[in-house]
Amino acid sequence: MPVQAKICGLTTPETLAAALRHQASHVGFVFFAKSPRDLTPEKAGALAAMVPYHVCKVGVFVDPEPDFLAAVLRHAKLDAIQLHGDEPPEAVAALRDAHGVEVWKAIPVRTRADLERARGYRGSADRILYDARPPRGADLPGGLGLRFDWRLLARGSGGFVHPLPWALSGGLDAANVADAVGITGAGLVDVSSGVERAPGLKDVDKIAAFLQAVAQL
Question: Which one is catalytic: 56, 131, 173, 190?
């Protein structure tokens, strides 16, 4: 099955169009005030209106307030909610039940022990996103261009048994995505800073290069 790719943190019509033109399977919009990629519900709605039905629209949140989340869903008609905060399994399950969309839970990874947290979300989340654990005190939970040791997810004898469908994030770019998929067997890869020319500023050429690299896998 072909590897799918999500371009996350899109903020402009031009960069969204580049992601769609080069066959991104998923596009991501960030709703977190501290992020340089933060969007209002209204701006996200305008961008989401450009996305064809077969491309999955994912909203990225950190411990979202219920009213704000409802406003985003109302404007942007998201297909999935991606959670990067301290949301426990019961909160994840409640969001899925309340809104009727897929819910993804990001798991920050530095060691093999971190992977075990994913098991707690079996039955509550629809997908796990393995991302690099940020440094202590960092303002952002992701989108920092950091990567973890992909060998933790290596396929084969003794490899980690995933409790849920999953995606790989953290430090990916056009030059290393083939290695990342080869080591981990990821079927969905998620990139943000790896297709930027500066924090929060996506580059249409880098988006194209990343998606072309994924298409060759």
Answer: 131
Residue 131 bears catalytic tag: yes
What DSSP assignment string belongs to 154-193? --STT----SS-EEEESS--TTTHHHHHHHH--SEEEESG
**Sign of the alpha-carbon dihedral angle for 179, 51, 128, 33:** positive
8 Å CB contact between 132 and 145: no
Dist CA 91 CA 24 (whole Å): 29
Determine whether 56 is an active site residue. Answer: no
pLDDT in tens, 138-169: 455 555 567 899 999 986 656 778 999 999 99
Full DSSP string of 24-75 = -SEEEEEE-TTSTTB--HHHHHHHHTTS-TTSEEEEEESS--HHHHHHHHHH
Query: In whole angstroms, how large is the CA radius of gyration of the chain?
Result: 16
Q: Determine contact, residues 25/188, Cβ cutoff 8 Å.
A: yes
Indicate which CATH number applies to the domain containing 34: 3.20.20.70
Query: Mean pLDDT, to the nearest integer, of 76-102?
Result: 95
CA dihedral angle for residue 151, residue 58, residue 25, residue 121, rounded to 10 degrees:
40
- The DSSP code for 136 is T
Domain count, the chain: 1
Domain range for 139: 4-215
Question: Which of the residues 8, 56, 173, 190 is marked catalytic?
Answer: 8
> What's the predicted TM-score (pTM) here?
0.93
What's the whole-number mean pLDDT along residues 77-95? 95
